[in-house]
Amino acid sequence: MYTLYERWLGGRQGAIGLLILALLIFAVMPATLDVFRLNLVGKYLTYAFVAVSLVMLWGHAGVLSLGQGVFFGLGGYCMAMFLKLEASDLISTARQTTPGIPDFMDWNQITSLPAFWQPFHSLTFTIIAIFVVPAVFAYVIGAAMFKRRVGGVYFAIITQAIAAILTILIVGQQGYTGGTNGITNLKTLLGWNINTNSAKYLLYYVNGALLVGVIMICRYIVTSKFGRLLLAMRDKEDRVRFSGYDVSNFKIFVFCFAAIISAIGGAMFTLQVGFMSPSFVGIVPSIEMVILAAVGGRMSLIGAVYGALLVNYGKTVFSESFPQLWLFLMGGLFIGVVLFFPNGLAGLYQTYAKPYVDPMLDKMSGKRSASSRIQVGEKERAVK
Amino acid sequence: MTNTDFVLAIEDLTVSFDGFKAVDGLNLYVDKNELQVVIGPNGAGKTTVLDLICGKTKAASGSIKFKGLELTNMVEHQIVRAGVGRKFQTPSIYENLSVFDNLEISYPKGRTVFGALMFKRTPEVKSRIHEIADMVYLADLLTTEAGLLSHGQKQWLEIGMLLIQDPELLMLDEPVAGMSVREREQTAELLNRICKDRSVIVIEHDMEFVKRIAHKVTVLHQGKIVSQGTMDHVQSDARVIEVYLGH
Amino acid sequence: MLLGYSFSDWGSILAMQGFAGLSLFSVLLLMALGLAIIFGQMGVINMAHGEFMTIGAYTIYVTSKLTEQYFPAFMPYYFVVAILAAFIIAFAVGYAVEFLLIRRLYKRPLDTLLATWGLSLIMQQVFRSIFGGREVSPTLPQWLMGSWSPTATIDIPINGLFVMALTIVVTTAVLLSLYKSRWGLKVRATTQNRSMAGAVGINTKKIDRITFAVGCGVAGIAGAAFTTIASTGPTSGSQYIVDTFLVVVFGGAASLLGTIASAFSIAQAQAILTFFMTNAMGKVATLLTIIVILMLRPEGLFTSKIRK
Fold this sequence. Notes:
Chain A contains 16 helices and two strands. Chain A is mostly helical.
């Protein structure tokens, strides 16, 4: 019981925060929004996976990746390849020059399914690939960089360059990837139509459950010795190394873990939105995902979800009605959060709301809870 | 005596930075349970020698043998795991974590990724942390955030973080810098106690302090040993006086 | 015969692609020089560096339009004045940005990165609001047009030659001022040991501000060079930012000579590869090579060994 409460849920504050989030996702949103808007919220929540991964990577481990879009994209493309193959059966593609292959391949004069597409006929393979492909990719990058002690700004720039490369590659290799348009016209998952309202509801709930699950796993990691080591590494890497730890292994693990989380988000994106394109992979989306975590508070797992919801809601509202204003706002958000609210929404909560909320909770539960230890990460000093 | 009888045997060690030889053909031996103090003017190569032993800097040539184990081709964490602990010149502790957490992170279990994920705070761990905290005069401050400690207490904490790993060779770079007279006395007592079952190398400038702790003193200058022996011997050595006063 | 080209064809291809590479090299180098000053010397990550290039490019455009309208007789000469204006305006904006934003973020490199990215978004939108989303080109003086043909198969554009000359002048000026002038000495003193530099009476804050502004000013000149080989849009500069950072990192952040060498090799590699592959694949191959080399040698091409 103790481990479940303190470690997976994060003590009293963590458990209540998670409960409120779960209520919001599973009860409030579905009760108040129509299916179109709920689907939109579901889309925002897929970005929240990436924001949560950045809280682990950037907030806790101090490693800023400007290429998380790569992993979001890898997960999304794996899913999309499976769905596209299912949508490209012989009957629906009968009018193509080569029936049975995805339409964009046919348009690009490709006459047989490329080898790396073949295994995506299997859903089992696809699901494994969603985890393994980004993890292996992250491992290769992470091992190469962290073993050689590349970190900080250099790591950020190189991951950004990798995001750029992958985008150019996807756009350039139209016949294999669908190019700029991405992989579109996805219809069914094992014969189940994902575009119906009932499917959208179900996928929304699956997505929400996965997100809550991911946050709980992150909580477990953060409250373990591993989590304290991450903070220690971020602030005094040499001391950790000279305490007998192979620092690079820890960073590689977090990087791979963050890649997998982002990829789950990407796969859920494809399922809920019905397509995947390079516009979620490149430099701009990748750095925008950082701002989601920054707005929520770079140390706060729950904050990241609110950051993702808020920023993307703002983006939808503004970019439709005042597109010029949105870029100013987005730019201002980057500058403002960094200069004035380095701990984001979570920081605001800690400073302004917590002093009132905590005594109330104490009164309700009738005793002081031992949650103070868990907050070590959250009362981090702003300037580092 | 062959060099495997020493805990640490450094032979012909050389390293240069852009042509400047910071350590130049150095031979240095440390006995079991010996507390050896290394002194020397600024730029003598003292810190660089520690850097070379603990793997922070790679040697250009020469060998460093620790209990017969060649350290020059091992990486930092392997050297630590082999039993070499090192305190840095400025206290290097985790300021945002409590004293307890600082010691727990240094506890030599759960050092791999999965070990750290599965690590449990057992009674054994707790009692060891209390024992060490007692030793370094921090027993009452276990829940304090380490950043709030005084400079001297930070030095002790870092020494405690090394002691919890029970190293056979402990290297301390200026352990009493920034300490009050009282704290210096306590540190001297601490060092005299802990060198009972391990070898210690200390770099220090405070001669009063050196006198109180040193079994053997080594004087470095321009990356070479100028003089070695007891404190009295070294202090009366003309070459040492030349190095400190001369030119 | 090799790949279907005769040997004289090969000579021409290499000469012309090599020259195309030199034009790219010039712009990259001018961009990278500014960044090498800001990032290499000061350690500041300026993601809005590309936008300072765009400022320079728009300055040329505006000057050309104004000259055309009010002093048509001055057309052949305006370009030289406009380059100076590009430097001054980019310098002034850089000075203001340092004062308002950057100086609050020293020692927080990752935060600087995010804040300057925000700045770049705002600047892009300002460009779009003023000049519209469509790309514009200045009217170039007649003498910049045309080309020079030393042999029948080789065709070298004059504007490319001009840009190269400009690059050589600016690079020399930057190198001289950084390594031979009093200012350069102060900059290097400040970047190597800030508190010591302050203690010996250097106004480190002023040095920071001017150094940052000079870096931006050089980017402005890069913008001037850019207008001679391509047209300018609100996002022209941002397309160069990743390449520019790679150039600086690849060369070894603190070494200006490294920056020059790496700008040259990257630009040449890209120009020659794009001839044999598609544009996109040439770029992918170049970037990948850089990253692989950086993984093998993270400290870049030119570095010195010091005790850290």
